[in-house]
Amino acid sequence: MSYVVPSAEAPEAAPLDVTGASEAALLERDGGSWNWLRRYGIWMALAVLVLLLSVASPSFRTVSNLTNVLEQNAMLGIVACGMLVMMVSGGFDLSVGAVGATGSVVAAYFTDHGGLALAIVACLVIGIVVGLLNGLLIAKGGINAFMTTFAMASIVTGILFVVTSAAPVNANAGWLTTLALGEVGRVPDAFIAYVVIATLTWVLMTRTKWGHYVYSIGGNREASYLSGVPVVASQVAAFVFGGLCAAMGGLILLGQSNIGQPSSATDWPLTAIAICVIAGVSLSGGEGRVQETVAATLLLGVVADGLNLLNVSAYVQPAVTGGVILIAVAFDKMNRGRRLT
Amino acid sequence: MQAALLGGSGLHSDEKVGAMATESSGAGVDGPSTVQGAPLRLAMRGITKSFGDVTVLRNADLEVAAGEIHGLVGQNGAGKSTLTRILAGGYPDYHGTVSIDGEAAQLKSPHDALQHGVAVIYQEFSLVPQLTVAENIVLGVEPGSVSYRPGVVREIAARLVREVGIVQGLPLDYPVGRLSAAMQQRVEIAKALTRNAKVLVLDEPTSRLAGPDRERLFGLMRRIAAEGTALIFISHFLDEVLAVTSRLTVLRDGVVVASGRTSGFDAVSLGSAVMGRVLERQEAKEEQAPSLGRGEVALVAENVSCGRQTRNVSFSLNRGEVVGLAGLVGSGRSTLAKALVGAVPLVGGRIAIGGGYVKLRGPRHALRAGVALVPEDRRAQGLVRVRPARENLMLMSLARSPSRFGLLNPKGLRRSARKAIVDFSVRPASDERRAGTFSGGNQQKLLLARAILAEPDVLLVDQPTAGVDVGTKAQIHRILRGLADQKKAVLVISDDIEEILALSDRLLIMRNGVLVGERRRGGVDKDELVSLISVGTGQQT
Asked: ipTM value of the model?
């Protein structure tokens, strides 16, 4: 009863191919092996690196160090989840750091003036509002994502500094501190939060129409529009999600230090974009998966931790990060095959 | 009818074609709600669309009956794509009325158009390369409100493809970006058909297909039409339009210049309707002043091939001569021109410039060897629109002769630019204005001036007068003729049959990527040329 659908493995087995030509001849470039490499290459790189560092440094292979790596990178991992969605939609966001800093400062204020719940809500609202503005300007206004989010970061940071006079705001972070620094068994709470958000992102991106549309818009905006996809709404939602993730990063930041620091989180945007790029997320949109983004987050975290334990100067770390990005991008380019420019 | 159409003088050709169209559409058969008996599926009336102060469609009417394959023909920029996009809901700010099955339809978005049963197969495939075939087919009409289930989408795609029953064997799980062009087109067709189209538009569907695939497509179109869908078939290949359609509409410069039953047209009358711009008095004068005769050979192409688009083309260009390259869009003429400056790599054959064989590495190399190309598309390939006219004018000369010590000489550049603007009477005569703000005709003059300032021995000009007013057109013709008089070799590509006949000392005729003939001035008349480039009653080589 069931209809035999021509499968990708055996396209020539299609029933009744009235159009004639053999399917194999019509398929250019088989990408099978490359897909495999793309999916697992970064995990393999991570495994090899962990193995090497475990041999090279006894302090690396301790449980406390490894849980420390998970805890330290959860915050940026969450920010990178949002960045992933925005980049797949064909944009990116330079204001995630400003949102994180502002969210943590505002939340710090409200922990003493209204309680923790209000603080959390206020922080998330800031993320939503900034994301909404970014999304509307980019998707509806057609303004370049770089300019929009760069300007938005400057505006938000500027206001933050005026209001706080650049002074840190003391908080009574309570549960947020547990979230940022606590552990269940030996697993850091922050990492559990990261896994939850990464899983949520995965569900949204692969199991909802919205996520599917985010991919299609990033892949070919015009074709999506002509196919009846709600292009503007979907991309605005992508930026709202990105803002929300940045705000959640801000909550963990507050939990870690118990202080709302206006000058914090400035490195978030570029680090999050770097994570996504290493994970194979296309800068022009349409491609990228959560799984590789998690691997890339851990990879950068392990690199930083390893350099630290091997007593390499902290000043060298940006250069190493830069090298990792270039290697990842060059590798990606090589495997996709070059096109005529 | 043909003689009446083409023979007379004094009447403007538009009027002649218009008169013919009224005749051929039959005496009163076209009622308001039916076309020759079949119910009217689509009626677009008084469609007007402007971009800024440029009107690209003026009061256009298009009627298509159920079960009809309707040809929509016209040159580049005639308004076919704009009309299509309006129908697809892509230009909500059009004027005029559209009704489908007798009901007024407001086409304010692609979603509206889909709701009204309009599906379009675009020339540039509207597929998302990263998504699989199944995902592309179902894109925009996924079931459910929130959740997306890949398995369900795949099943739907498989069922739709099976129901349509025409395009089988699609590899549903492959990303579309990894399929060949022919395969991608099948995906496009499957996608359009699965949207329950009442009106199906095929925009240049054959431009990327080889012979047997074309025939299959035509069979497919007939079957779709037989089920009551109204088909609109857009093609540059007039013989295809004549073979496949039952009625047709001809657009020129945004205006419907002819429409009626296909049987009322033949290759020549249709070609004239599409191409015939009349500049008779002007052209007549030029014909009386032929070139100063042949000079030495400036460029030789030997068996030049660049893929399927251009195969085994051999010819030579002589100094002091204007050579016309005639052919339809897609015949390989523009690819050939690009190959002659190294912008398209040669698959086979070789090129000699000024007596020696050269392997061109690119346009910069060609310029230094003395060959300059004025490309066909001012907007996309020609001018750097946001930079001042001055900089645009000097762009090619800089490649030819790098300035001293690698530094630019701003005063010298300005002087040459101003002189060029005066010499070519560019209006407004400002070298500071952004190139994109000039009118089409003046942009074309800037482009020509840019190439000429580089002092090439061979000038290749692709569509020198597309979208240019009559006065500027005559001026451009004088410039080209003047270049030949200065012992340059000039190759002109044009859609405008009369222009190319009047301008050329010698004609090269291309069809389907092959050179099918060569004629001297006076050795071919308009009718013969039209049939040579469109259907090929001439001998094939």
From this structure: 0.72
